[in-house]
Amino acid sequence: MIPARALPLGKSIKSGSHSQRLFSTSLRRDATWGFIGLGRMGYPMAKNLRAKIPASDTLIVHDVNEQAMRQFVDEAKTASTGPVEFTDSARTVAEKSLNIITSLPQPVHVRHVFHSILKPGPLPQLEQERLFIDTSTIDPVTSKEVAYAVQAPNQGRFVDAPMSGGVVAAEAGTLSFMFGASSKTGALVDRVREILALMGKKAWHLGEQGTGVSGKLANNYILAINNIAVAEAMNLGIRWGLDPKTLADMINASTGRCWPSEVNNPVPGVIEKSPASRDYEGGFGIGLMRKDLKLAIDAAQESGAPLELAATARGLYEAVEDIYPGKDFSIVYKYLSDISRR
Ligand code: NAD
């Protein structure tokens, strides 16, 4: 059982269209947890995990970046939240841990990590079935192949649970997860929900394994297109002489309203705390948007679904990233407004 501070009674987390109460039924005491990938998202997620699991549990972290591991262990010692170890081997994490979370950049890294976990042969048996939760945004084909590689030889369960909310939500422990896991028994889904609740506030169970990454790519395809549409429309309105803030307020009370218009408006000064208002620093990197769009296009081709706007959007993101690498993806607006002024 997880202590009440970790999962306050009555805390709810969404599943499909239903919101359910969480009861800590499936997590063991004195368990060992693994976390692989201490990047911009993984580091704060692992920190929240360590703070919320029982003090008697152990967390083992792994990253190819040794400095990130050392910093993590030092910070955890200062915070005195409970035992933390690091290892230079993903296999060692998997051998010792019951629940293993991965947060890695691209499909190739997920393949690499699971190859190094599985290649040496069968993992030692634990009292309960091992659970791998991959929170990386990758394509459904890779996710299903890795799940098969884990599950076919009975090395544990593999669940895809990509996330939404960015670094701010990762730090605050308020991420939204969308996950794919077999619901044949129900116990697996409950266990996944309990674990995700340690790092986020919502978890959507979308169906069988692989549906989490499919859902995430569908969402981020909309985001990619909406971001361009808002940048184009704001640029157009401003060229017609409209006041940017008034135009944004009108759109946000009308049918054009969407996350890029309302929360991440691309015009500097329209939203005080948006990346656009701090020279497009922070936020959702244009490289990640480009990666997610490519994954969505590949997955759509694989399933035969047309994406009429994808090629144009992809070309634009490539052109913009070449000029503004590392900036928030709303920098598309600056690129378009600079062209209009030429
Ligand atoms: P990141 O590049 O900051 O971190 C990835 C970490 O993985 C790095 O610390 C890197 O050293 C480590 N790593 C790479 N290869 C490894 C290997 N073989 N073994 C062990 N560690 C390895 O990426 P991020 O921004 O934290 O994103 C992680 C995932 O979350 C990505 O799939 C991303 O698309 C997704 N995501 C990111 C955001 C965001 O705003 N940053 C939002 C939602 C989803």
Task: Characterise the protein shown here.
It comes from Talaromyces stipitatus (strain ATCC 10500 / CBS 375.48 / QM 6759 / NRRL 1006). Pathway: Amino-acid degradation; L-valine degradation. With 342 residues, this protein is of the alpha/beta class. It has two domains: 206 residues, Rossmann fold (3-Layer(aba) Sandwich), CATH 3.40.50.720; 128 residues, N-(1-d-carboxylethyl)-l-norvaline Dehydrogenase, domain 2 (Orthogonal Bundle), CATH 1.10.1040. It has a six-stranded parallel beta sheet with strand order 5-4-3-6-7-8, sandwiched between helices. Helix 1 links the parallel strand 3 and strand 4. Helix 1 runs parallel beside helix 6, helix 3 crosses helix 4 and helix 8 packs parallel to helix 13. The radius of gyration is 21 Å and the shape is globular. The N and C termini lie far apart (64 Å). The N terminus is likely disordered. Bound molecules: nicotinamide-adenine-dinucleotide (NAD). Nicotinamide-adenine-dinucleotide (NAD) binds next to helix 4, strand 9 and helix 6.
How many beta-strand segments? 11
The low-confidence parts are 1-23
The chain-level structural class is alpha/beta
Average pLDDT works out at: 92
CATH topology of the largest domain: Rossmann fold
Spatial strand order of the main sheet: 5-4-3-6-7-8
Largest sheet: 6 strands, parallel
Distance between the termini: 64 Å
Q: What CATH architecture of the largest domain do you see?
A: 3-Layer(aba) Sandwich
